[in-house]
Amino acid sequence: MRLRCVWLMITVAVLAVSCREPRAREYYLRADRTGEYSFDISLTDSLARYDISFYTAIVKPLLHKDTLASFPMQIVWRSPSGLYFSETVYYPAASPRVLYRSGLIPSEYGTWNIGITLPEEPSRLRGLGIICEKQK
User: Fold this and answer.
1) 30-37 — which CB contacts under 8 Å span 24+ positions?
2) In b/e form, how buried is each residue of 30-40, taking b as 16+ CB within 10 angstroms?
3) Which residues pair with 74 in a beta bridge?
4) CB 121 within 8 A of CB 30
5) Distance between CA atoms of 95 and 55, rounded to whole angstroms?
6) All structural domains of the chain with their residue ranges
7) Per-residue pLDDT tens for 59-84?
8) Are the C-beta atoms of 48 and 116 separated by less than 8 Å?
9) Is the pLDDT of residue 106 over 80?
10) Does domain 23-134 have CATH number 1.10.260.40?
């Protein structure tokens, strides 16, 4: 009887930990040559700060020097209530992953849309991704 009780307590503890929401979520879209990417990210935890990173896959040229240093990204944040904020940032082409915002506290909690337009999409770009990670 005692062994069953201990086993049950261990099982419940393991299940409680494993049912927790993941700390990070990743989204990736393959390039379709339109230069338009859209991601819906959940910023629902009112006690959390978030780190937002971008990552890409760019094929490097084999026989000649790569001259692509960076490319512009027009970013539009749309809040759950429909408000928006936009800015242009430059992505360094030599980095597969770049931290975009650290310690972000959203002005509204819920699902945000991040729309990204690449006005000069690199021809060797294979896709664009976003990582939303809760800080510890």
Assistant:
1) 30/126, 30/127, 31/121, 31/125, 31/126, 31/127, 31/128, 33/121, 35/117, 35/118, 35/119, 35/121, 36/115, 36/116, 36/117, 37/115, 37/116, 37/117, 37/118, 37/128
2) ebeeebebebe
3) 88, 117
4) no
5) 8
6) 23-134
7) 877 666 667 788 999 999 999 999 99
8) no
9) yes
10) no
Identity of the amino acid at 117 = T
pTM for the structure as a whole: 0.77
Name the token pair of 80.
């759950």
CB 29 within 8 A of CB 19: no
Annotate the chain with three-state secondary structure: CHHHHHHHHHHHHHHHHHCCCCCEEEEEEECCCCCEEEEEEEECCCCCCEEEEEEEEECCCCCCCCCCCEEEEEEEEECCCCCEEEEEEEEECCCCEEEEEEEECCCCCEEEEEEEECCCCCCCEEEEEEEEEECC
Write down the residue that tokens 């040229």 correspond to.
61
Task: Give the separation between CA 55 and CA 129, rounded to whole angstroms.
Answer: 5
